[in-house]
């Protein structure tokens, strides 16, 4: 799937990463936040935040395969939190807006987001509704020409810095799959949080450089014209948006896992025990070969899913398989690599231990492994009947 043009895009992205991101990673990890506006503006100015977004709203207008190439490139950032934050901007919070939003909405929200002038976050999960999206409680009640929003959102990546949120909320009563809408919700005015919006920072096991917030809404008003697409279609739009989020997550992990294996090869080649390098042990180099094979098979599933998506087909089953396999491999590969680093693997001062912490998230965020298995079973036609 990767042509010379795809490779050229990746090379260009990696040069920007090496110049503008990697020199600052250690500080951002220590600070538990990175300057999203500054970094995103550099990415946006280069066109990288809109690789497959419409040209009329600042994007490159390329097909989805180029977005996969971009995701592979940012997966190489040594701090997983930075790559994840970028992916929120490109593959998690904007696909539905680009596809279903009015021209006014896309001019007001998508264009400055693609340019890197705005930072966006996705507001779906709640403390009592993570993978069970249909059970969310946040409401957007009609009042005149506005919605009045009440509720809260949990685990919001980019939340502490975001200018706006792609919010999923209940806009009516009734069927929980038909009573939700996606809304472009401005979070700040003049650099400060709008009245009625408060946030708490969440401290995480990994992904330290990415800020994560719990967000509360108390009678927050937003014009109804800021709704994305038709009222009541938000659940459907979000399920489609999830597929690009999940494939993006799996794609970034391919590069991260490849890097973890390569760094482990170099470390075990240099590390000596009993008169020879650790890498010289057949158990070690055979295991690394097995892991590399698994990672390459994951890449193949991702490319196949992308091709289905580009042809207009439904990539839900393949994207779910890719995310499931990525989550399993993130645990298997990083744990094996950390083991081969020995005592050094259990310190904070190397990329393998950071990958061990950061990459664990993919089995949880964007739909847990168990949800992926349920989706796959549904497509196989083998879901058990629900108990009465």
Structural class: alpha+beta
In order across it, which strands form the biggest sheet?
Answer: 1-4-5-10
CATH architecture group name of the largest domain = Up-down Bundle
Number of domains: 3
How are the SSEs placed, and which strands pair?
Blueprint: H1 4-20, H2 25-31, H3 36-45, H4 64-74, H5 80-92, H6 95-100, H7 103-115, E1 120-123, E2 139-143, E3 146-157, E4 164-170, E5 180-186, E6 188-189, E7 192-193, E8 197-201, E9 212-223, E10 227-228, H8 234-270, E11 272-273, E12 276-277, H9 282-310, H10 316-340, H11 351-358, H12 369-380
Parallel strand pairs: 1-4
Antiparallel strand pairs: 2-3, 3-9, 4-5, 5-10, 6-7, 8-9, 11-12
Helix pairs in contact: 1-4, 4-8, 5-8, 8-9, 8-10, 9-10, 10-11, 10-12
Account of the 3D structure:
It is built from twelve helices and twelve strands. With 388 residues, the chain is of the alpha+beta class. The protein has three domains: 116 residues, Butyryl-Coa Dehydrogenase, subunit A, domain 1, CATH 1.10.540; 109 residues, Butyryl-CoA Dehydrogenase, subunit A, domain 2 (Beta Barrel); 146 residues, Butyryl-CoA Dehydrogenase, subunit A, domain 3, CATH 1.20.140.10. The strands form four sheets. Strands 1-4-5-10 form a four-stranded mixed sheet. The protein has a four-stranded antiparallel sheet with strand order 2-3-9-8, covered by helices on one side. Strands 6-7 form a two-stranded antiparallel sheet. Strand 2 and strand 3 form a beta hairpin. Helix 1 packs parallel to helix 4, helix 5 runs antiparallel to helix 8 and helix 8 packs parallel to helix 10. The chain is globular. The model has no long low-confidence stretch (mean pLDDT 96).
């Amino acid at each position: 799937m990767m042509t010379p043009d795809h490779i050229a895009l990746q090379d260009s992205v990696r040069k920007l990463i090496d110049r503008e991101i990697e020199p600052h990673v250690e500080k951002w990890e220590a600070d538990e936040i990175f300057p999203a506006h500054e970094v995103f503006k550099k990415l946006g100015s280069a066109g990288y935040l809109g690789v497959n977004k419409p040209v009329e709203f600042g994007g490159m207008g390329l097909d989805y395969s180029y977005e996969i190439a971009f995701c592979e490139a940012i997966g190489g950032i040594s701090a997983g939190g930075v790559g994840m934050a970028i992916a929120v901007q490109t593959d998690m919070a904007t696909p539905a807006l680009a596809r279903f939003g009015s021209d006014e909405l896309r001019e007001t929200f998508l264009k400055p987001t693609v340019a890197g002038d705005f930072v966006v976050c996705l507001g779906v999960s709640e403390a009592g509704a993570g993978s069970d999206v249909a059970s969310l409680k946040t409401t957007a009640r009609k009042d005149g020409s506005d919605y009045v929003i009440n509720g809260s959102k949990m685990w919001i990546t980019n939340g502490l810095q975001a200018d706006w949120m792609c919010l999923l909320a209940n806009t009516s009563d009734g069927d929980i799959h038909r009573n939700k809408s996606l809304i472009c919700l401005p979070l700040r005015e003049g650099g400060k949080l709008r009245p009625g919006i408060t946030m708490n920072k969440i401290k995480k096991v990994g992904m330290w450089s990415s800020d994560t917030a719990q967000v509360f809404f108390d009678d927050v008003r937003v014009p109804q014209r800021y709704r994305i697409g038709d009222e009541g279609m938000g659940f459907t739009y979000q399920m489609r948006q999830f597929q690009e989020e999940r494939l993006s997550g799996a794609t970034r992990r391919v590069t991260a896992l490849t890097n973890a294996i390569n760094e482990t090869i170099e470390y075990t080649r240099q590390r000596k025990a009993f008169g020879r390098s650790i890498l010289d042990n057949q158990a070690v180099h055979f295991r690394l070969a097995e892991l590399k094979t698994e990672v390459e098979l994951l890449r193949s599933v991702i490319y196949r899913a992308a091709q289905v998506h580009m042809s207009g087909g439904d990539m839900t089953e393949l994207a779910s398989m890719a995310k499931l396999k990525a989550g399993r491999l993130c645990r298997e590969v990083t744990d094996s690599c950390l083991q081969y680093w020995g005592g050094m693997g259990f310190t904070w001062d190397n990329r393998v231990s950071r990958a061990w912490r950061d990459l664990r998230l993919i089995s949880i965020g964007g739909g847990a492994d168990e949800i992926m298995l349920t989706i796959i079973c549904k497509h196989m036609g083998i879901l058990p009947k629900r108990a009465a």
